[in-house]
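Worked problem 6 (solution included).
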Amino acid sequence: MAKNVLLISDEILKERTSVHGNIDPKLLYPEIKAAQDMYVHPILGTALYNKIIDDVDAGTITGDYKSLLDDYIIDCLLYYVLASLPAALSYQFWNKGVLRKNGESTELPSMSELIDISDKYRIRAEWYGERLNKYLKHYSTTSFLPEYLSPGDTLDTILPENNTYTMPIYLGGEYKQSLDKNNCCNE
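Solution. The predicted structure is:
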């Protein structure tokens, strides 16, 4: 879908999160769009995502779709945007290259601190994403949010995800490929 419809505005982001009111909205819009395309779209699946985008664009979102947006999608989206903002706001593209902004009498966080902040919000986003996912799985029927059950069948269709959590844990061990044709497992 090529529409540049945002499910939340910069005002909602600023009102409901720790994002300061003086941040230029044009720095927020790309992060909102990327977060909804990369994280919300896969949770909803293509048909339900497109239905909500079309209704928001037309100003006709009502009923169950409005409740889904207000009660589940917005919370998830807010925290995915917050997870992407530390790097997006700290490093910007200028005619001299990528620069890190430095304000007067401020202390810039280290890169590891930025990563920690981002991880904090990503964990919240995944929690809200899982909450959204469970709601959709439990309540979707052919008469209630039918688009979730029928996401589409074109080449660019995204099927709804089953799990929204990531697992950045290394469990140890070394991967070794077996050369034995009769043994398809790893050693």
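Discussion: The mean pLDDT is 85.
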